[in-house]
């Protein structure tokens, strides 16, 4: 099946710095990708839709200036957490799909802000 | 808001069938039912999906009621590795935009 890969799988950063997470579709092209965040023992919460060649669409309550999304190619979307704070620590997951199939999810990135 | 409701947790004995229910009473006619599971600290893994007919693959069976307002995921012979959180999602085919509910935490007991 199709593969979606995230990098890095874990990252620790200092408060006030920015961190970039990559999401790649390895064997298909994706005009849209999706970013989710997940707190411990909670469900996935959709943050935004990443659109290739245009601006991302953010869900209500998600700060677009805090979570910058870039989708510059059909196989890569990036999520940058800017000026990270401890409350941004979370598990971030991306997904994408192709044709009429189901969505495929990356393995997730655990961000810890210290 | 999620269009699905699931019991928060279930236990199942190893080797027995695990039947996980999902209510989706507001599903629209062209929305599919998707099932995923998530093992701790991993991304969700696809299990199965269907529109109106029952479906079966190597992992599980999906039973959808005739009115499509509910469905049941069946793991025929649960193993310890099936311990995970199971999510039922309704979505239009090919949109990939999923709104997750709270899921069911399945624990398979030895």
Q: How is this structure best described in words?
A:
The complex is a heterodimer of chains A (114) and B (110). With 114 residues, chain A is mainly beta. Chain A is built from no helices and 11 strands. Chain A has strands spanning 4-7, 10-13, 19-25, 32-38, 44-51, 57-58, 67-73, 76-81, 90-96, 104-105, 109-113. In chain A, strands 2, 4, 5, 6, 9, 10 and 11 form a 7-stranded mixed β-sheet that branches. In chain A, strands 1-3-8-7 form a 4-stranded antiparallel β-sheet, with no helix packed on it. Chain B contains no helices and 9 strands. Classes of the chains: A mainly beta (114), B mainly beta (110).
SSE arrangement:
The complex is a heterodimer of chains A (114) and B (110).
Chain A: E1 4-7, E2 10-13, E3 19-25, E4 32-38, E5 44-51, E6 57-58, E7 67-73, E8 76-81, E9 90-96, E10 104-105, E11 109-113
Parallel strand pairs in A: 2-11
Antiparallel strand pairs in A: 1-3, 3-8, 4-5, 4-9, 5-6, 7-8, 9-10, 9-11
Chain B: E1 9-13, E2 18-23, E3 31-38, E4 45-50, E5 55-56, E6 61-64, E7 70-75, E8 84-92, E9 104-109
Parallel strand pairs in B: 1-9
Antiparallel strand pairs in B: 2-7, 3-4, 3-8, 5-6, 6-7, 8-9
Q: In summary, what is this structure?
A:
The complex is a heterodimer of chains A (114) and B (110). With 114 residues, chain A is an all-beta fold.
Q: What is the succession of H and E elements of chain B?
A: EEEEEEEEE
Residues in β-strands, percent of chain B? over 45%
Shape of chain A: globular
Find the count of extended strands of chain B (DSSP E, 2+ residues).
Answer: 9
Question: Which protein chains are joined by the largest interface, and how many residues does each one contribute?
Answer: A-B, 27 and 21 residues
Q: Level of helix content of chain A?
A: under 10%
Oligomer: heterodimer
Largest sheet of chain A: 7 strands, mixed
């Amino acid at each position: 099946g199709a593969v979606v890969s995230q990098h890095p799988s874990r990252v620790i950063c200092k408060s006030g710095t920015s961190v970039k997470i990559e999401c790649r579709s390895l064997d298909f092209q994706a005009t849209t990708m999706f970013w989710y965040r997940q707190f411990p023992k909670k469900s996935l919460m959709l943050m935004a839709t990443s659109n290739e060649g245009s601006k991302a669409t953010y869900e209500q309550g998600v700060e677009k200036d805090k979570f910058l999304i870039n989708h510059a190619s059909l196989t890569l979307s990036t999520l940058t957490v800017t000026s990270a704070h401890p409350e941004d620590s979370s598990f971030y997951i991306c997904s994408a799909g192709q044709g009429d199939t189901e969505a495929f999810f990356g393995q997730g990135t655990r961000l810890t802000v210290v | 808001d999620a269009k699905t409701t699931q019991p928060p947790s279930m236990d199942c004995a190893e080797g027995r069938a695990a039947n996980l229910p999902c209510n989706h009473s507001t599903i629209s006619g062209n929305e599919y039912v998707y099932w995923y599971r998530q093992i701790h600290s991993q991304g969700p893994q696809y299990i199965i999906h269907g529109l109106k007919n029952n479906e079966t693959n190597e992992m599980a069976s999906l039973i959808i009621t005739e009115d499509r307002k509910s469905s049941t995921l069946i793991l025929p012979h649960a193993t310890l590795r099936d311990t995970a959180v199971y999510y039922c999602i309704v979505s239009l085919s090919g949109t990939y935009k999923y709104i997750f509910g709270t899921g069911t935490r399945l624990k398979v007991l030895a």
